[in-house]
Amino acid sequence: MNIIFSTPQNISFTNRTSPKKYQNLSGVENLPCAICGNRMYTKKELEYILDSFTPSIASVFKDKEFESYKDTNAYSLLKELAKKHPKTPIKNAVKDEDFTIKFQFLPEYTQQVITEIVAKASKNKIIAANVIKKIEKLKPAFGEEEVDIFNALKKYAEKYPDKSFSEIFSLSEVYQTHLENIRSYKSSRFPKVNEIMENIRTLGKQLPVEEQDELSIIENEVVRPLIDRIFFNPYLRNKNKEILTDIYTGEQLYRENYAYRTLTKKINILSQYEDLRKHSSNPKVMAKICELAKELPFETRLVDFFILDAAKNHKSDRDIIWDLLSRVVNSYDHIIPRSKDGSNDLSNGLRVHKYCNEERDVIPYSIFSMYKVGLNENIQKQISKIASLITNEKLLNSDEYPTSVRETLLEASDGRIIIDTDSFVKNYQNMIAKKAKGINESKERLFAIVEHYRKINNSISEKIEDLTKEIEELKENKKTNKKLIKNAHKCLEVLMHEEIKLEKKI
Fold it and tell me: Disulfide-capable partner of 412 in 67, 74, 365, 496 (CB 3.0 to 4.6 Å)?
């Protein structure tokens, strides 16, 4: 293990550790996000929540929609399966081991009907109010824009208590409302942007020509393209996978003028002005320009896009729910982006929410750390949790991670992000020493047992040897005895023969 020592800091390893053992970081439950510090959910946990909206197999047979299948063998087989797993979602019930074996030997038509029933049941209507009730517990993990989406969905669920989200979003009044929101925002935004940029250009006249040129480049190549993007993901790729098209305007977009989220835009734009301020000949003027830039309308209108995107693409209720649930999934964030030759190694990654991953985009941590409040503390919080799992032997295959990721962060943030790993190193060394001691004690016990049985074996060997000798002696004695007996018999015969002779003479 490559042990790296840093400036000692106070850090606690008193986190409660899970009774589970994890193979990798993506499966760790209750892990805090390295960027926002809120709890992340594993894909497995989120899929479990999503599956909870799928009707149980027993309820499928109470739905009139499936009455047309009543006379099929597939219906009978599934109904029989429902007796075994009445409360299990149908998509999980059909994974029953006995049923999967039986399925392989069914006629092709019966297999197709079973697949059709399962697919249809899995795309069932999910009442919006029921969705809100279940996923409200995830709200503390959401980012600001996700909370806005949730609140908007909650209002619609209350307004249309008997409808699903796919039904609500397809309503003309709902679709038109959000489309108008975007149009209104677009029309009100450009005058504000133009006013701010005019004020920046006016202030810029106090700067040297070369710095005025830099301001112009920032406006035309950074501000205008980024501010123009108001959607979270408003494009479709064409066949060559290079040109992107705004699904609402039909305009062509390119990756270099595309921004994901509100904070992403803000950091990308403000950091450009901040860089110019650092080497400007008139930092006071640039400080005023930086303050003006903060007033730009960075909003992404994620709520409007979320609803319009679902309606325009005819998303099912499950797809809509997953779009929201998946934003809090535990995902891998490349510390050094792949576009900057960053690797996929464990040491080049932090675990972050999907929405935090999108928010950071490829912004260098040296810049991101200056704008994201609490970033250092949140990264430390995650690494401490991971370190605790490692030292308690609850996380496998990650022993070098805390120290190696510390070095990556130091490099990527230009020394701004310093993670304390001293306590981890100490605890890890204690763990290794304890394991080594345990191994040595086990070896000693093993040697003692071996020695004990060696002595017993030697004793047994000696006894076997003695017994073998005794047996040999007995065998020899037996031969001797046989010879003596034989001689005695001969003597007896002689004596008896002599006695007979004597009797005859008499």
Answer: 365
Query: Can you give the residue ranges of every domain in the chain?
Result: 25-42+329-420, 55-124, 129-325
* Contact (Cβ atoms closer than 8 angstroms) between residue 401 and residue 57: no
User: What is the rounded distance in angstroms from the CA atom of residue 281 to the CA atom of residue 204?
Assistant: 12
Which among 188, 203, 177, 172 has a CA at the least distance from the CA of 273? 203
Alpha-carbon torsion (355, 356, 360, 362), positive or negative: negative
Check if the beta carbon of residue 51 is closer than 8 Å to that of residue 92: yes
**Weakest-pLDDT range from 1-5, 92-96, 306-310:** 1-5
Alpha-carbon span 135 to 395, nearest angstrom:
28
How would residue 16 be classed by pLDDT, with cut points 50, 70 and 90?
low
Distance, CA of 273 to CA of 358 (rounded, Å): 22
Give the whole-angstrom CA distance, residue 324 versus residue 139: 10
Q: Which residues contact 339 (CB under 8 A, 6 or more apart)?
A: 362
Beta bridge partners of 351: 332
**Cβ 212 vs Cβ 202: under 8 Å:** no
Taken as a whole, the chain contains a residue count of: 506
Nearest-angstrom CA–CA distance, 37 and 86: 40
> Could you give the CA distance from residue 300 to residue 233 in angstroms, rounded to a whole number?
10
Put the strands of the sheet holding 252-253 in their side by side order. Answer: 235-237, 244-246, 252-253
Angle at 214 between CA 212 and CA 219, to 5 degrees: 95
Residue 427: which residues within 8 A CB-CB, separation 6 or more? 13, 387, 391
If phi over 0 gives left and psi between -120 and 50 gives alpha, with beta otherwise, what is residue 200?
A: alpha
Alpha-carbon span 19 to 39, nearest angstrom = 18
The per-residue pLDDT for range 349-372, each reduced to its tens digit, is 999 999 999 899 889 999 999 999
Q: How big is the CA angle at 445 (ends 439 and 447), to the nearest 5 degrees? A: 100
- In DSSP terms, 151 is beta-bridged to none
CA 210 to chain CA centroid, Å, is 48
- CA–CA separation, 312 vs 56, rounded Å? 30
Q: Which two tokens stand for residue 440?
A: 């040595």
Q: Which residue has the tokens 């325009």?
A: 312
Tokens 């517990």 correspond to: 137
Q: Residue 341 pLDDT more than 90?
A: no
In 3-state terms the chain splits into helix, strand, coil percentages (rounded to 5) of 65, 5, 30
What's the pLDDT score for residue 504?
56
The CB-side HSE value for 430 (13 A sphere, CA atoms) comes to 10
Long-range interactions of 116-120: CB distance < 8 A, separation 24+: 117/60, 117/66, 117/69, 117/74, 117/75, 117/78, 117/90, 118/90, 118/91, 118/94, 120/65, 120/66
